[in-house]
Amino acid sequence: MAVRHRVIKADPAVVWEVLADGNRYAEWVVGTGDSRPRSGRWPQKDASLAYEIRLGPVRLNNQTVVRHCREGSLLELEIIAGLLGTARFSIELREWGEDCLVLVDEHPLRGAGAAVHNVGVEALIQLRHRSMLARLARCCEETAARRREPAAREASGAEGTGRA
């Protein structure tokens, strides 16, 4: 079972906002092309996204389905990858001071992925998670910074208006 974590320098609400935007899925999930809603309302239970995985010249059409959602703190997904099978992917958010501790857990459920799962595959998943969490952190930290900019401009403008 591939479990990994990362502290993201953003409020958990910002991290959840990124996760809850199905159109941003491809920004932080390694290997996916454009993501688009397939059914339901992301990230509600049974909602799904469609996207393409590119492996050299091969293009695979995959989908991800929400199996469980606790708004603001937990998103459990089933990744459906055709002949490769399916996998469970869980993302948990925890407050960590002013930041957000993100824990991801992935393991195969059915199909070829489950049949060939071994220590080598675990190592590859760990590398993928490291990259994915770095991408998620970048998305969330940039979103948080954009939110702070107008507030900082407002504060600096307000301070300079009191002349004697």
State the strand order across the main sheet. Answer: 1-7-6-5-4-3-2
Largest sheet: 7 strands, antiparallel
Helix content percent band: 25-40%
Low-pLDDT ranges: none
Q: How many helical stretches?
A: 4
The total count of strands amounts to 7
Shape: globular
Amount of beta strand: 35-45%
Alpha-carbon distance between the two ends = 65 Å
- The secondary-structure class comes to alpha+beta
Report Rg: 18 Å
Overall average pLDDT: 87
SSE pattern? EHHEEEEEEHH
Summarize the structure in words:
By secondary structure, the protein is α+β, with helices and mostly antiparallel strands. The protein is 35% helix and 38% strand. It is built from four helices and seven strands; from the N terminus they run E-H-H-E-E-E-E-E-E-H-H. A seven-stranded antiparallel beta sheet has the order 1-7-6-5-4-3-2. A hairpin with a 2-residue loop joins strand 3 (48-55) and strand 4. The longest helix has 41 residues, at 119-159.
